[in-house]
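PROTEIN DESIGN WORKSHEET
SECTION A - STRUCTURE
LENGTH: 90
TOKENS:
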């Protein structure tokens, strides 16, 4: 498949997306915390935790911290770590 030619506008949009990828992942995790608190079935919670794991991978969270969060499966622990990550991102 041949390489695609992008307009200058498209190039800038793509560049800004990748510049803000960490902010996007943090926002996604914030939304997941709320959804985890409101999840009403085990199946839904399991899917949400899988999405949280993927978001933490994108953020390059230390494996030990991510493993602890995923082992405990407590939204409060995820939320408290997320607060720390948000403070350090500023």
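SECTION B - SEQUENCE
RESIDUE ASSIGNMENT:
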């Amino acid at each position: 498949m041949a390489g695609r030619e992008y307009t200058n506008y498209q190039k800038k949009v793509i560049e800004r997306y990748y510049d803000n990828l960490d902010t996007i992942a943090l926002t996604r995790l914030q939304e997941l915390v709320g959804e985890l608190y409101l999840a009403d079935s085990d199946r839904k919670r399991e899917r949400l935790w899988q999405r949280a794991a993927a978001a933490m991978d994108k953020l390059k969270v230390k494996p030990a911290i991510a493993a602890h969060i995923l082992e405990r499966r407590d939204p409060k622990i995820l939320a408290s770590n997320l607060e720390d990550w948000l403070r350090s991102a500023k």
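SECTION C - NOTES
The radius of gyration is 16 Å.
The helical segments are 8-19, 21-38, 42-58, 63-72, 75-89.
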